[in-house]
Every structure is written in C-alpha cells, then in structure tokens.
Design brief:
Shape: globular
Number of domains: 1
Number of helices: 9
Length: 190
Amino acid sequence: MLEITLQYIPYHTDVAFLRIKQDEIALDYYKVAFFIHVYTSMLVLLAGFTQFSSSILRKFPKIHRTNGWIYFLTVCLLSGPTGLIMGFHANGGFYSQLAFCLLAILWVYFTVIAFIKIRKKDILAHKKYMVRSFALALSAITLRAWKYIIVRLFLPPPMDAYRIVAWLAWVLNLVIAEIIIFKYFNKRMR
C-alpha cells in the first residue's frame, strides 16, 4: 500500500490507476476525494493495526486511545466519505459502483457503532465492531490481491475482473471477520 500511495506523491494525476480515470480526475470534487482517500490510507492501516495489540492496550493505553481516535476520525471524516464519492465513479458500471458505495457506508457505520459501544463501556461489542471495520479497511489490500489472482488464473476482460474484485475484496473480508468474531469472542463468552 505504501508503494501504491507513493506513486501519487507529491501530486501526480497521470500515474497508475488515474491513467484510466482522466475524465473523473478532471472533476474537482473527485480529485480532492481521490487524493484525500489515497493519502489517508496508510494512516488508517497503521492506526488500525495497532488497535489489535493486547500488549499495547495493556502497557500503553494512551497509545491505544490516541490511535483509536486517529482511526475513528480518519475513517468517518476523510477516508469513508471520500471512498463513497469515489464509489459513485467506480469502473465497471452499476455493480462495481454499488459494491464500493456499500463498502464505504458499512465501513463508516461499523466504525461509528464501535465508537458508540466503547463510549457506553461495552468493550466486547466495541471489539466486534472494530474487527468488522478493520476488515473493511483491509479491503484496499485484498482488492489488489484478488485482482492479481483472478487475472493470473482466469484472464477475464479487465472490467469483468474489476466487477468481481469490487465485491470479493470486502465481502470475503467481512465473512472472515464474522468467523473470527464467532470463534474468538463468542467462545470467550461461553
């Protein structure tokens, strides 16, 4: 993800993914949304990964809280809303657009619910919703992995591959998150 992000720094509109998005990048609101989304991606991933360390939570609770706030604010105010804007312009037509818009909405929703749960001191529910939220954050990585696998194995037309990975990137992550929640958290409750 760092390598992908660095392609766009300091401010390049004719590299990588943007080569096929020249009509959209000409729209000011899309350009702003795209660069905010790309530039905040590393912040979200770094802040998110630290949230699942029990040793950080135990030894450095202030770091956990600070990174939690960074994750929450970045997802809810920057990455999620800009992902929604980008979703409306996704390659592959309606089905890809629907996939990315649902991804953005669910990502913000799960993050907000996780925040509400921790404010109510419902730690178990907070953890469950954070697993869901971070599973959706990781779709940025899984999208690229699935695209590589599908293209290598099946050689589909590019837009067909994009329509498939638009869903596969986050739906499978969410299924895995639910399995983790069921096996790990529900087992602890018993």
